[in-house]
Amino acid sequence: MARKPPLQYASKTGNGTNRIRFVYPAPGLPAFVQDGEPIRAIVAQEHSDLEAARNWGGRLALRGADENIVIPLSVQAVEPWDPAAADPPISGFAALSEARRLSFVRITLRAQHRLSPAAPRRVKLCDLLFDGQVERLRSVAAFVPSGGDLRLAFAADLHLAKAWNAIADAVARYAPDLVPGLVHPKRLVEKFIDEVNSLAAKGQLDLVVLGGDLVDHVYAFSRSQAPSTLADSNVKLLLDALARLQVPTLTTPGNHDYRLYPWRPRIGEIGALGIPSSRAKALLQAAGLWSRRPLCLADLDTLRTCEDSGRPALAHYLSAIAPATEFALTFQGVRLIFASSGRDVTPLWREVEFARAGPFLRSLRHARLCPDSEGLSDLQVNRIASWLQAPGGAALFFHAPLLRITHLAEVGRCVGRVDPHAKDNLASRIAFELQLERAGVHRGVCFRNPAPLLRALATALGPVVTFSGHVHKATAIQLDRSALVLHTADPAPPTNPADTVTLLTAPALGHMSDDRHHPPGYFIAHFKEGALVALDRRTL
């Protein structure tokens, strides 16, 4: 689908040309509205000109994702907007250097016709049009209240990248016998979209959540070749995929979404596509993708999270997919909380506290297969804790899990009691992290602050479940709130949601797991009155 440049509309002001661009809603953070409710959009412009913003808003319209009917919009109000406001959240985009010179405006819009979805659908997804062209695809979701019933699909680790597409093409050309067993991220994502669209059409799905590692790296080319435009990024592949969805989508980034540049194809990496290591070298050589050098300075570019100009890797994500990485909203009776578990901790060695140096150095041994992510900051944990104090059930989404099951031992016997009333300081937090490391459950996870988040989960006011990815395996750990003990479990709803916190990790959607026993797939989760009541693991 052809798209216009991000600066969409120019009007003459006393200060010259005033260009306006959309910030919210977005494909990964849509506006959820009931029929008759206003749609509140946030735009950014180069000059503080409310009249220009009003004129711009008057040229907007809606179109259903599964139909060609255009619904006119009228402008109800235009007002300046503080980018620090939490609702709607745009803090990520507002923090970009390119946004600091912009003025933010909230435009309140109202649809001229009804937006209610046609039965049996419970949600109607719409594109926002500007002068008849798609300006923000899949960005407005009109829904019918369900009485506290929510069905969502959770998928993580899509790993979309032009590099994987090139390798899939090489397999088809030079090793066609491997095609039936090939794990192709792009095709798996397309199959996932077909399945969730079918469920939504039958009224059996309300929402899709994508839990990080949406792309394998931002740009399709090395640093010496890469232009810094959306069109030449793997984020564009993600945007194209979302264009087919007929279900509203909420997203959070993973550690790969913070990586700027691709790696040189190696035997170990392409094993994630199901290619046998005995065939990998010959395949890469035939395709002209093999390099003899075991290591070169340019390989370190795969860990870069900022361009030479200082522009962060997430800039395209924040501009085109979702304007924030930390937010909470309530939909169909469930408090949905999103947090970013950050970048790989490996390139952040200068920022690692001295007391965490030992675990950091030991983490380097497994960094290639499943690196530790930066983890959660004190500010993030405090914000999540406050969100969990709202009444009702909650679902928390972040990419890297707090704990990783790497063996068959019972987690409770390895870890022992989790005490939410322990003295909370850096020393006690690190002591707990060392305890988890010795137990073998703190590898390839959130590097920082599992202790305060577990305390926040244990003291939440209502039922709570967490969803993560990163480890490419479907696993579950349950925290007994009364005994404050962790238990290994099957990925399933708890028997008593009010007394149990369930920590889920999902299989990878676009890759295989390291041990090949966890094929690509995703979860379908069913909530009633805020509590998880059913969980279905689906394999692609």
Q: Distance between the terminal alpha carbons, to the nearest Å? A: 26 Å
Uncertain runs are 1-8
Number of discrete helical segments: 13
CATH fold field value of the largest domain: Purple Acid Phosphatase, chain A, domain 2
Q: What is the CATH architecture assignment of the largest domain?
A: 4-Layer Sandwich
The largest sheet has its strands arranged as 1-2-4-7-6-5-8-9-3
Our count of domains comes out at 2
User: Class by helix and strand content?
Assistant: alpha/beta
Q: Estimate the strand proportion.
A: 25-35%
Please report the total strand number as a whole number.
23
Mind summarizing the main beta sheet?
Answer: 9 strands, mixed
Mean pLDDT, all residues: 88
Which word captures the global form?
Answer: globular
CATH C-level class of the largest domain is Alpha Beta
Radius of gyration: 23 Å
State the share of residues found in helices, binned by percent.
Answer: 10-25%
Structure report:
This protein has 540 residues and is of the alpha/beta class. The protein has two domains: 9-143, no CATH class; 149-197 and 204-235 and 256-539, Purple Acid Phosphatase, chain A, domain 2. Helices cover 22% and strands 26% of the residues. It is built from 13 helices and 23 strands. It has helices spanning 50-57, 91-94, 162-174, 185-201, 234-242, 267-270, 277-286, 315-321, 357-363, 378-388, 411-415, 426-439, 450-458; strands at 9-13, 16-24, 31-33, 39-45, 60-64, 70-80, 103-111, 123-130, 133-143, 149-155, 207-211, 249-252, 327-331, 334-338, 373-375, 394-397, 446-448, 464-468, 475-480, 485-489, 500-505, 521-528, 531-539. The chain has a nine-stranded mixed sheet, with helices on one face. Strand 13 and strand 14 (334-338) form a beta hairpin. The two termini are 26 Å apart.
